[in-house]
Write a structure and sequence with these properties.
By secondary structure, this protein is mostly helical. About 55% of the residues lie in helices and about 5% in strands. The chain contains 5 helices and 2 strands; from the N terminus they run H-E-E-H-H-H-H. Strand 1 and strand 2 (about 45-50) form a beta hairpin. Helix 2 runs antiparallel to helix 3 (about 85-110) and helix 4 (about 110-130) runs antiparallel to helix 5 (about 140-149). The longest helix has 24 residues, at about 85-110. About 20% of the residues are buried.
Length: about 150
């Protein structure tokens, strides 16, 4: 993936890559600054934060799917290179199964709901991946599904 910056490779390897930044892995998308959301804290301070990903950022299944596949391939590269066979098996099978699940929910639910589910799911599993557990990718999260789908 010559178009993917080395800093992004490292962020993926360290599980610090923000799921809403998947667009950065898509060679066909020119990076543009994400709009910011503004709010006032309890202390009266003006806060700026990145807006959540939306269907405007990912207007179709392929707009999410293509960079997600690149994300998974980079992740698999690092896990396999580590020599940890059980983790390698978990991540390879988990990524494949998750893509299948994602396609199934895409076929059944409204696109905006699928996006919400994906980004919540991905964020939820970052901490597990930091601990070396990739098994969560192999099944649908029924709690998140009941909230978002």
């Amino acid at each position: 993936f010559p178009h993917v910056e080395s800093a992004l490779w490292l962020a993926i390897a360290k599980h610090e890559f923000r799921p809403s930044h998947l667009y950065k892995l898509d060679a066909t998308v020119k990076e543009c600054p994400k709009p910011k959301a503004f709010e006032i804290s309890d202390d009266g301070e003006f806060l700026q934060r990145e807006r959540e990903a939306s269907p405007k950022d990912y207007p179709s299944f392929h707009a999410l799917f293509d960079p997600l596949v690149i994300y998974f391939e980079i992740l698999q590269y690092f896990i396999i290179a580590s020599g940890n066979v059980p983790a390698s098996q978990q991540v390879v099978l988990g990524c494949s199964e998750y893509l299948h699940i994602l396609y199934q929910i895409y076929m059944r639910y409204e696109w905006s709901a699928v996006l919400q589910y994906h980004f919540m799911f991905h964020n939820r599993h970052l901490a597990e991946m930091c601990d070396g557990d990739y098994s969560g990718w192999r099944s649908m999260d029924t709690e998140l599904a009941s909230l978002h789908l």
